[in-house]
Amino acid sequence: MTIWNPWHGCKKISPGCANCYVYRRDESVGKDAGIVAKTGDYNLPVRKNRQGGYKLTAGDGIVYTCMTSDFFLDEADDWRMECWDMIRERKDLSFYIITKRIDRAAACLPPDWGDGWEHVTICSTCENQDRTDYRLPILLRLPLKHREVISEPMLGEIRMEQYLATGQIEHVTCGGESGPNARPCDFHWIQEVRRECIRCGVPFTFKQTGALFLKDGKTYHIERRDQMEQARKSGYSYYPGAGLAEKISYRLPEKSDLWEHLGRSAFRSRFRLTAKDREYIRDKGWDTIRRHAEDFVAKRLAPEAPDHDGKQTPMKGHPVFLAQHATGCCCRTCLEKWHHIPAGKILNSAEQEYIVSVLMEWIKRQI
Q: What superkingdom does the record give (predicted)?
């Protein structure tokens, strides 16, 4: 990994900027991070050694660009085109540009940009729902070869599935805020974006917990040195087919607690077997109903990323259809919320048997 900061300094423009680490670090050494100036590394990509070769090589990894500023900052308009010239020259490198100013990008692209450069990735930040709904449509309209999204610091629950479903976003990263004035990050927010990524087949990285992490009603104060490691150990990053979710530890609810929890839900409690359903069960027999339940679980819940998860339910009008909704077993999202079984993992035989037992117990309770 290489960091290329052609200029330093920035202007705060949205809620995610409030506790900017660049401002905090510069203030600690008596500098004003609001002053934008070129750095000594301005020409880093094309700098050469004594032998006449480039100092930076492809082996140095991704070139993260403008990490102490913003590449599309208007104060840098006079310098940016020369940076594009350097990026154009170094097609053997991969440049990664994170920006909060995606709305300026179209006017700042080089004239020969076309539909994008293969060795450049543009990543838009979106710290809350408001910035998500403003920035991501712009990101999707831009002529880019590679688009990514980062929600860090994540300041609230974010829904971005409508943008992920376009297939144009290659990766999503989420993380909490660090620093002495860090705002809280709720694990529920991380889980929700992760589930959306799984449904859309988009790789997801849980980068860091942040300093103030909320989980299961508890608040955790996490030291800076532990924030990335705690996120990594959680297993909640997702890469299709990689099996990372197998590492997630969880505990199935006690059945008594589950029934009590479901009983407090007005939505779950409204499902009831009708006289016609009971007659169907008597005609078919319990063994047939159980096979139907097993078939539903194996085909619609067990895969890592079931097709149309939560949007298409088989056997409508069937007792198992009612049972799956009444017990929170209707999709992988509900399975995680009600039964703690992580989304993104292939259900093993024990997990499948557990779900079938819940469905069958609910049906028998209705007879």
A: Bacteria
Cβ within 8 Å of residue 8, ≥6 positions away: 22, 33, 36, 37, 39, 68, 69
pLDDT tens-digit profile of 114-149?
A: 999 999 999 999 999 999 999 999 999 999 999 999
Sign (positive or negative) of CA dihedral 153, 158, 163, 169: positive
Asked if residue 282 and residue 175 are part of one domain, the reply reads no
Note every long-range contact of 306-315, with CB atoms under 8 Å and residues 24 or more positions apart, other chains counting. Answer: 306/331, 306/332, 309/199, 309/333, 310/199, 310/334
Number of domains making up the chain? 2
pLDDT at 316 over 90: no
Last residue of a domain, which of 247, 280, 300?
247
Q: Return the number of other C-beta atoms located less than 10 Å from residue 93's C-beta.
A: 21
Q: Is the pTM of this model over 0.85?
A: yes
Q: For tokens 């998860």, name the residue.
A: 309
Measured distance CA(276)–CA(268) in Å, rounded? 20
Beta carbons within 8 Å of 51's beta carbon, 6+ residues apart: none
- Residue 206 forms beta bridges with which residues? 174
Residues 60 and 125 in one domain: yes
Q: Are residues 239 and 104 in the same domain?
A: yes
pLDDT at 220 over 70: yes
Q: Could you say which of 182, 212, 247 is where a domain stops?
A: 247
pLDDT, tens digit, for every residue of 8-45?
999 999 999 999 999 999 999 999 999 999 999 999 99
Q: How far apart (Å, rounded) are the C-alpha atoms in residues 131 and 138? A: 11
Separation CA 235–CA 220 (nearest Å) = 18
Q: Residue 363 pLDDT > 70, yes or no?
A: yes
Rounded CA-CA distance 304/248 in Å is 14
Token readout for 11 is: 């202007």
DSSP 250-270: --PPPHHHHHHHHHT-HHHHT
Range of the domain at 313: 255-366
